[in-house]
Amino acid sequence: MAVTDVGETILAKDGGQTVMPILFKLNRWQWWLLVGLNIFFLVAGQTASVLLGRYYYDKGGSSTIMATLVQTAGFPILFIPLLFLPASENSPTPSDSLSGKYICLIYIGLGIVLAGDNFLYSYGLLYLSASTYSLICATQLAFNAIFAYFINSQKFTPLILNAVVILSYSAALLGVNESSDAPEGVTKGQYAIAFLCTIGASAVYSLLLSLMQLTFQKALKKVSFSVVLEMQIYPSIVASIVSVAALFISGQWQTLEGEMNGFHTGKVSYVMTLVWTAVCWQVCSVGVVGLIFLVSSLFSNVISTVALVVGPIASVIAFHDKMNGVKIIVMLQALWGFASYLYQNYLDDSRSNELRRQMDANETRVAAC
Prior knowledge:
Blueprint: H1 5-8, E1 12-14, E2 17-19, H2 28-58, H3 64-69, H4 79-84, H5 97-126, H6 130-136, H7 139-151, H8 158-175, H9 188-219, H10 225-250, H11 256-261, H12 267-294, H13 297-304, H14 307-319, H15 325-368
Antiparallel strand pairs: 1-2
Helix pairs in contact: 2-12, 2-14, 5-9, 5-10, 6-14, 7-8, 7-9, 7-13, 8-15, 9-12, 9-13, 10-12, 12-13
């Protein structure tokens, strides 16, 4: 068994005996394969979602609540892989009913926070270019490092601190230099509000990740890949309900038919844009929650910064966003910060394996005696 020390923190306790979930039966290459797959889901899903969100606004979409709703409305597709996963070996007992109610309340709370966070992101993207939006989101790593330290007992090392400082500085540099890159017709005031909304959304998102990790560690009685999907499905259901309610309360639902008729590329394009945005957000979310489960919330957030490189480049190709010197510097710094954190995880993994080999050798010597 070769997994990181961070992964070992999500071992569940049941009646004083340690429950060994399927994750810890994987060998090293299988674990890294799963990590790599979730990294791909996160980066590809996040990049595609941001581009489609910007496309929705550019082509005539204007409903920030609809843009919020599609970020969670794709949750039904996650029931498909859930059907093919084996049932957990740790079936809940009657004594778990209170725990079940407690976990239900956790999912409701996470869903409400998720809905508010998605709205802030949607409002930010309304007045920011796709590339600028992606780069500003780097601040979530700094916020998550703070929350992970206090909530998840995440240790700081010089390499992690370097990653946090570099990425935070990059986003700040972008924020004070990129107002000229806003979409056409956006005022400086709207840009400033959108910038602050995106910063706020990054902070809330980081808190959400740390709370999800805490739920894995402390609240759930069973840990499996089906639980990873459930962690995404149930909060998404709550967030979708909240978004639909907001759509009707705000009156924006009355403008949707006119918005669809006036969409620059047609009604079919309008519907498909929303559908594929919803699908891509779910792919991204599976990657996010999967990495929290496999490693930690901070690692999941660090991987999100890879989109700081992929997103702006894709935006330049798709929307002809400006690629000036500031953005190039920010992307290089994002790579630097990401590499620092990835190297720290490599060192942690190496130390964990060496410690495990020493413990095995000691046990062998004791048994021989």
